[in-house]
């Protein structure tokens, strides 16, 4: 029986990449391609951001810190997205995942990260300080005014500049979304075009003028939109385009996020409702709580975090702002 203190914990070494992928693929059965992509496509890959446990020089557990900047009240915070947490079955329940999470926290503090997020079982991570974050989603089924001047097409590689611009226009002042650089977008576009992801990205135009984009995941699931929000007509056009694309008669739309301006736009664009249909509740707009992962405050030294002293405080701010998009920024 191997004791917990017989494992050494430290960063991944050069030359251990294949062993890491083998370990992950053996544990995430059915998601082999995905885990390989999460390591190989990481835009900011550094060995030091993969923490591993070794026993007799063999990798037995691992964890990946994905370095990201996030918008926070118009400023930026450094965020560590934790992914690929895995312990080989023969070495489980000996506190290895816990030691890796502690090590990752020490690393993030040293490197001046502000917060960390992850998606996983609260039972595993809460003991290490990550707390469940509940955000909100918007669920709607409404008839909307039609706009016949709107057209849509799938995104192409040459849309890169526009996507970047619309993303910043839409997200730059919000709290929670990831700041994406050019390298990130190039990777994203490659994935979209090669259709390796389930995400589908559409460009919306009105009278031949491109006004924005939206990303959907399956029928009726909107995971992201981007457009110029200084003109509320643009957001209305985006909403109408999304409905005309996804909402065939009777289909409802599940927005993976809630934003007051989006909610207002849906109301503005909805056509007259029949009393019978309202009575039968066949049309609705609801705001529902949604699991948005787990979050941990790493440091409070950043001026943007003044007044925030605990993970609870941070979670309150993130929940109020309702726009957490880490899931789409994990390759
Ligand atoms: C989840 C996993 C990483 C845990 O690794 P581990 O090294 O066995 O975890 P630890 O021994 O450090 O346990 C950490 C805490 O999580 C809890 N925990 C571990 N496995 C658990 C499980 N399957 N269900 C509920 N709680 C669990 C333990 O109670 C422990 O708390 P404790 O220290 O108070 O006892 C491992 O089971 C695994 O690789 N699973 C397959 C891949 C996976 O699901 N990864 C997580 C993706 S979110």
Descriptive notes:
The chain is built from 10 helices and 13 strands. The protein is an alpha+beta fold and 331 residues long. The protein has 2 domains: 4-133 and 293-329, Aminopeptidase (3-Layer(aba) Sandwich); 138-289, Aminopeptidase (3-Layer(aba) Sandwich), CATH 3.40.630.30. Strands 1, 2, 3, 4, 5, 6, 7, 8, 9, 10, 11, 12 and 13 form a 13-stranded mixed sheet that branches. It is elongated and about 70 Å long. The two termini are 37 Å apart. The mean pLDDT is 87. Residues 27, 61, 85-87, 92-98, 120-121, 123-124, 127 line the site of coenzyme A.
Topology overview:
Layout (H helix, E strand, L loop, with lengths): L7 E4 L5 H11 L4 H9 L9 E6 L2 E15 L2 E13 L8 H15 L4 E4 L3 H4 L5 E11 L8 E5 L5 H12 L6 E2 L2 H13 L4 E8 L2 E9 L3 E7 L4 H15 L6 E3 L4 H10 L5 H5 L4 E14 L13 H11 L10
Parallel strand pairs: 4-5, 11-12
Antiparallel strand pairs: 1-2, 2-3, 3-4, 3-8, 5-13, 6-12, 6-13, 7-9, 9-10, 10-11
The structure holds coenzyme A.
Compact summary:
By secondary structure, the chain is of the alpha+beta class. Strands 1, 2, 3, 4, 5, 6, 7, 8, 9, 10, 11, 12 and 13 form a 13-stranded mixed sheet that branches.
How would you describe this structure in keywords?
alpha+beta, 331 residues, Aminopeptidase, 31% strand, binds coenzyme A, 10 helices, elongated
């Amino acid at each position: 029986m191997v004791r917990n203190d017989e494992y050494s914990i430290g960063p991944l070494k050069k030359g251990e990449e294949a062993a890491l992928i083998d370990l992950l693929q053996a544990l995430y059965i059915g998601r082999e391609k995905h885990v390989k992509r999460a390591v190989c496509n990481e835009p900011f890959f550094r060995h030091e951001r993969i923490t591993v446990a070794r026993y007799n020089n063999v990798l037995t557990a691992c964890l990946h810190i994905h370095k990201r900047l996030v918008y926070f009240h118009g400023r930026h915070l450094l965020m560590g997205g934790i992914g690929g947490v895995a312990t080989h079955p023969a070495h489980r329940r000996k506190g290895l995942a816990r030691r890796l999470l502690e090590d990752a926290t020490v690393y993030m503090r040293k490197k001046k990260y502000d917060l960390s997020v992850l998606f996983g079982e609260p039972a595993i991570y809460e003991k290490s300080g990550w707390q469940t974050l509940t955000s909100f989603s918007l669920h709607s089924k409404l008839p909307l005014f039609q706009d016949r001047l709107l057209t849509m097409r799938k995104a192409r590689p040459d849309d890169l500049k526009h996507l970047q611009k619309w993303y910043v226009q839409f997200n730059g002042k919000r709290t929670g979304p990831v700041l994406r650089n050019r390298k990130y977008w190039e990777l994203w576009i490659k994935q979209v075009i090669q259709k390796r992801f389930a995400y589908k990205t559409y460009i919306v135009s009105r009278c031949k003028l491109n006004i924005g984009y939206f990303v959907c995941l399956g029928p009726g699931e909107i995971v992201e939109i981007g457009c110029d929000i200084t003109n509320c007509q643009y957001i209305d056009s985006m909403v109408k385009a999304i409905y005309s694309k996804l909402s065939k008669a009777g289909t409802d739309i599940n927005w993976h996020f809630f934003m007051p301006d989006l909610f207002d736009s849906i109301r503005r664009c909805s056509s007259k409702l029949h009393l019978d249909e309202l009575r039968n509740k066949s049309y609705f707009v609801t705001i529902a709580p949604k699991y948005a992962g787990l979050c941990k405050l790493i440091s409070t030294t950043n001026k943007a975090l003044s007044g925030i002293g605990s993970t609870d405080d941070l979670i309150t701010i993130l929940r109020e702002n309702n726009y957490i998009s880490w899931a789409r920024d994990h390759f």
